[in-house]
Design goal:
Largest sheet of chain B: 6 strands, mixed
Number of strands of chain B: 12
CATH topology of chain A: ABC transporter involved in vitamin B12 uptake, BtuC
Radius of gyration of chain B: 18 Å
Number of domains of chain A: 1
Strand order of the largest sheet of chain A: 1-2
Strand content of chain B: 15-25%
Number of helices of chain B: 9
CATH superfamily of chain B: P-loop containing nucleotide triphosphate hydrolases
Distance between the termini of chain A: 28 Å
Largest interface: A-B, 31 and 39 residues
CATH architecture of chain B: 3-Layer(aba) Sandwich
Number of strands of chain A: 2
CATH superfamily of chain A: ABC transporter involved in vitamin B12 uptake, BtuC
Oligomer: heterodimer
CATH architecture of chain A: Orthogonal Bundle
Order of helices and strands of chain B: EEEHEEHEHHHHEHEHEEHEE
Shape of chain A: globular
Chain lengths: 356, 258
């Protein structure tokens, strides 16, 4: 399929996800303008930010996944590789533990729809609904912690690798940092077991707390990510030749690496901050795009973003509408869908090319 | 007199394992425009390390067009020297053959400029030279190992660099494709380029304008295939009784293990 056709398909799917998301309420899907007119306020203030955030976060993850797979020349790379996920995890655990310690363990009450103030701020509200100092920055604590934690994780990986190194060194550093930070987060959870429930929502990923600020934050992060990454698309193409050959093409590879890691950290951090650790979107989106036919990285980056947006948007709408009024955590569905798809692809490939 | 396209003087290369032990010494090696030179020697002799050193432009002692290699900018260097390393394409690449070969034009287009007519023409001629025109729009990942190798070689040709380095270009290639590669190489040299080619197949190496044998950490002086000294170099380097004979058709030389 040609690039333009693919973009059209992916944009249509994105719009469809938005439509489904806007129509999904506590009673399942409601259709028609009369239903919409009655729910107008609800739609504009609750469902629109949520559906838009889901699409934007998915797009950010799709873009990040395409960058990671190109940069590390590894089709199994995902946006969380460079320690960003574990960094965000630890930071969120710290904030949750701190606020629950301040508020007293008795205040904990799951993560049900208390906070719509922005991003995963709701988690914190549920962890410490009456705490003093946390109330001073409503909705900022958890998203900010997750964002900073993600960036810190990436920085740790970069430091451990001794800078922006080519080859597998940075990847390995990311894996090591990820394990260490995750271990630290688990230790914290052992010491403060009352954060487990609120933390679970973050680990599974959810759009339940996304508000208008989330739309803005994610929009800015996605735009910045595209602005940083797209000029480097040809460098990613060159990297498919291997580091050795790519280096002799006269392209500013080191500068491109820096820009791409920045775009990766920024988009992943923003997505993690607003919707938690949604799995598989970043891994599956570039694969889906590649399955549609060959393309340069310029097209792959844009289309992976569109694809990730459609994936997470649809998953989110389904999670809200299918079993209403109960909601499934979005991350569960993306993991099921994305994992299932990759499994099918793997089986197809195994049957086409036996053993190489 | 024109300076040679590529000139190496007193180049000392260390083992790439970081031990600091010497690997290869090249006292004097020059490639003149219009000629292709084969580089042969046992495994681990440092042929690939020499290629890498030339491509990376790190060590002093290498000149292109009479100017030290590291005095050119990375982009100027890339326009003058194109290198085919032994590594293949990475798994999961989503490029077509044409898009991969177009990467050979990156030294001219840079990061942002879209390919123009000249770039397209260079890619087209590289594809034709290797008989890849029919595969141009196929995804690289769908090709056989030999076809992928041809596409990588076409990428080097598309740069239209005056100096070309090929490390084991015939690996994965069947006999007809090897012939095609040799013809393309010869054609490029007739148009004024020069090439240094690492080869394990001595019979292919003997088709070169000159052969350089690597022996005991030294690149021996270049010899033409008919030079009686070449046989002695080969025997010393490989520790085998090798005979270099004129083929009965009189047009070329062949090597046989005695």
């Amino acid at each position: 399929m040609k690039n333009l056709g693919r973009v059209a398909v992916l944009v249509s799917l994105g719009l469809l996800s938005l439509l489904l998301g806007l129509s999904a309420g506590a009673e399942g899907w409601s259709w028609g303008w009369t239903a919409w007119a009655a729910d107008q306020e609800l739609i504009m203030q609750l469902r629109l930010p949520r559906a838009a955030s889901a699409w934007l976060a998915g797009a950010a993850l799709g873009l990040a996944g395409a960058i990671a797979q190109g940069l590390f020349r590894n089709p199994l790379a995902d946006p969380y590789l460079l320690g960003s996920a574990a960094g965000a995890h630890l930071a969120v655990s710290l904030v949750l533990a701190a606020s629950s310690a301040l508020a007293g363990a008795s205040m904990l009450g799951g993560f049900g729809g208390l906070g719509l103030s922005g991003g995963l701020g709701g988690l914190q509200a549920s962890a410490s609904s009456a705490s003093g100092w946390m109330a001073l920055m409503p909705g900022l604590g958890i998203p900010l912690a997750a964002f900073l934690g993600a960036l810190a994780g990436v920085l740790c990986s970069l430091m451990l690798a001794g800078g922006l190194r080519e080859g597998p060194v940075l990847l390995l550093a990311g894996v090591v940092v990820g394990m260490l930070l995750a271990a630290a987060a688990e230790t914290l959870a052992l010491m403060a077991p009352d954060i487990l429930r609120a933390r679970q929502a973050f680990l599974l990923g959810t759009t339940a707390f996304a508000g208008p600020e989330s739309v803005m934050t994610l929009g800015i992060a996605l735009a910045l990510g595209l602005v940083l990454a797209l000029p480097c698309a040809r460098a990613l193409d060159a990297l498919t030749l291997g580091d050795d050959a790519a280096r002799t093409l006269g392209l500013p590879l080191s500068a491109c690496r820096a820009l791409l890691v920045a775009a990766l950290a920024l988009t992943t951090g923003a997505a993690v901050a607003q919707v938690g650790l949604v799995g598989f979107v970043g891994l599956a989106a570039p694969h889906l795009v590649r399955a549609m036919g060959p393309t340069l990285h310029r097209g792959l980056l844009i289309q992976s973003a569109l694809c990730g947006g459609a994936l997470l948007g649809l998953a989110d709408a389904l999670c809200r509408g299918l079993a209403a009024p109960t909601e499934w955590p979005t991350g569960l569905l993306t993991a099921l869908l994305g994992g299932g798809y990759l499994l099918i692809r793997l089986r197809q490939r195994a049957s086409v090319e036996p053993i190489r | 007199m024109n300076s040679p396209a590529l000139q190496i003087n007193a180049l000392h290369l260390l083992r790439p394992d970081g031990s600091g032990a010497p690997l290869l010494q090249v006292d004097d090696l020059s490639l003149a425009a219009g000629r292709w030179t084969a580089l042969v020697g046992p495994n681990g002799a440092g042929k690939s390390t020499l290629m890498r050193a030339l491509a990376s432009a790190q060590p002093p002692g290498i000149w292109i067009d009479g100017k030290p290699l590291n005095a050119w900018t990375a982009r100027e260097r890339a326009q003058r020297l194109a290198w085919l390393p032994q590594t293949g394409v990475s798994a999961g690449t989503s490029l077509t053959v044409q898009q991969l070969v177009m990467l050979g034009r990156a030294p001219w287009t840079g990061l942002l400029r879209p390919p123009d007519h000249a770039d397209l023409a260079s890619v087209e001629s590289a594809l034709q030279a290797l008989g890849l025109d029919a595969l141009a729009n196929r995804p690289i990942a769908a090709l056989s190992g030999g076809e992928q190798q041809l596409a990588l070689i076409a990428r080097v040709l598309a740069t239209e660099a005056p100096v070309m380095l090929f490390d084991e270009p015939v690996s994965h290639l069947d006999a007809p494709h090897q012939r095609r590669l040799m013809n393309a190489l010869r054609q490029r040299c007739e148009r004024g380029a020069c090439a240094l080619v690492v080869l394990h197949d001595l019979n292919l190496a003997l088709q070169a304008d000159a052969v350089i044998v690597v022996h005991e950490g030294r690149a021996l002086p270049a010899r033409s295939p008919g030079d009686p000294g070449l046989q002695a170099d080969l025997v010393r380097a490989f520790g085998q009784a090798i005979e270099v004979l004129r083929h009965p058709d009189g047009t070329r030389w062949i090597a046989t293990l005695v």
